[in-house]
What we know:
Blueprint: E1 3-6, H1 21-24, H2 27-33, H3 100-107, E2 114-120, E3 126-130, H4 143-153, E4 161-167, E5 173-175, E6 197-200, E7 202-204, H5 208-212, E8 215-219, H6 228-240, E9 250-253, E10 286-297, E11 300-306, E12 316-319, E13 326-328, E14 346-351, H7 355-369, E15 378-379, E16 387-393, H8 397-407, H9 410-425, H10 431-445, H11 470-483, E17 516-523, E18 526-534, E19 540-548, H12 550-561, H13 568-592
Parallel strand pairs: 1-12, 8-9, 9-15
Antiparallel strand pairs: 1-13, 2-3, 2-19, 4-8, 4-16, 5-7, 6-16, 10-11, 10-14, 17-18, 18-19
Helix pairs in contact: 3-13, 4-8, 4-9, 4-11, 6-7, 8-9, 9-10
Amino acid sequence: MPRTVSWMFFNRDQATLSENPQAKMGWGHFLCRLGLAISILSPGGVLAAPKGKADKETQQKQAAPAPQAKKAAKPIAKQAVSAPAKVKKLDPAVEKILSEEEIFSRFNVGEEHVGFTVIDLDSGQRLAGHRDRELFIPASVAKVPTTVAALSTLGPDYRFETVLYVDNVANLQVALPETANQPVNGEGKNGKERDTVDHVFQISGATPEQIAAGNLYLKGGGDPFLTTSDLMGLASKLKKLGITRWTGNYYYDTNLLSQPDRIDTVQEDDASYNPGLSALSVDFNRYIFAWNPSKSVKGQAEVVTTPNLPSVDVAYSLQQLGWSKQIFPSKPWEGIRIQSPAQPSGSVWLPVRNPGLHTALLFQKICSNKGIELPAPVKTFMPSTATPIMVHQSQPLVKLVGQTLEHSNNLMAELIGMTTTRYITGKALSLKNSGAAMLKWYQENLPEVDWRGAQLENHSGLSSKSQLTPNQLAGILRYADGNLNKDKSYVSLLPISGWTGTLAHRLGDPMMAMKVWAKTGTIHYSSGLAGYLYTQTKRRLVFAIFVTNYPEREHLSELISQGLPFPEAKAKNWNRRAKAVEDAFVRRWQRLY
Length: 593
């Protein structure tokens, strides 16, 4: 059955993570990933034992068992209003140290919407605070507790594993590869050093034909950075065993982690930064949908999906009705909707909803390209009697954490977080339960922090239901500075003001550039910035500042739930002013202390 592409007006909530690279990451970042990879095996995994969604967004903020962020008493009008005045830009070369009152007044953000804390990292002295025990929406700042807990429990050298197993092969004998405990050097695309690891076990006792008559299992280990290139590496090594056709069965196993079909249920179906999750995930679980109506025949538009797999059917018809489009694909993707300006041709990223099957099908296709025919993949629990024959290991966790924080990548944060709680609890938990388990870990390991009211709905911050106080976030950052200093300190993994990641274009003047190492967070009507600050007097400060307008956020959620349009320009203007407040306070602290 062909899918239908209709052109019609459609409004969407773009409130979620406008800074998020999955929403704006293109081929440049994707191709950059292919140049990564090869180092030594980690002490954990197959080759050696490891060391040890709600249906829709809430219409009203739930009461918390702890002190809550105060809300403006005046109700928010539901009619469209004129946009606030433009933000006045600071002149860092001549600007005086603004008082707190001047900052609130200048940027027209009520003090009741702002909370912050500033602490001397070396002495522990609290230097400044404002509503620091009240709850705010952390947005992507929630990636800080995710990555700190992961590095603390899994360790910086932990590597995610994607493994090929076989069973039902008589007389098969395998041994650890000779290079299992040795560094592996090599170069990737454009000469960049690779530090992923691929190993083939030493196999004896069975011919290639006998091996191919057994069952083949592709087992996922939650690798958040697995690429098509990595799957090609496994296929190439399988070919070197002399196998050209697999006559047994081909299975895939995703049971290490739960498999939600999206991170947050209130996002639009076409949001590529809100994909399905699985222990078998590849290329951020996205695919390209490209169309060309001008080449249509009898109403069938020329459509290309990359990769072209049964999980992303390519039959579409198209009808032009207006300035934007809506796609209603055939099952199992019924309901995906895309908005963009009408044009004769174009392309968009779409999220993969069943990433385990998608990855298994992609590996089948890649094997076919290498001259190895695999049967159709079937999902299963791999038996404990299966024998590993080759393994792909990811970069060390510390490098993946750095990329997660720098690019604010949702999928990476979620898979890292879910793997962490799997390690802590021994169970594959739902996103909500995984967030709760991580919060429990913090309560047990940082008992000096008041955790009342804290809530982690997931591990990426892609939800307005998560709540943290500035004090709670600052406590996590202080813990990270004191406990995560092996090889790379935690501060070194964060975006740098005026230089990298989501801070590349913020606080970049000579006075502030490279003085702030922090994580940003943004959804409509909520913004945050938390990390480390180096002052003029060479003091090291830890800070967390959140700006959340709960009444406006709740009103926006109500409009979305009713399928009504909302004043997006107004929301974006508010977020710009919120970021200006954050930057002004950081400037104040850098010069004052």
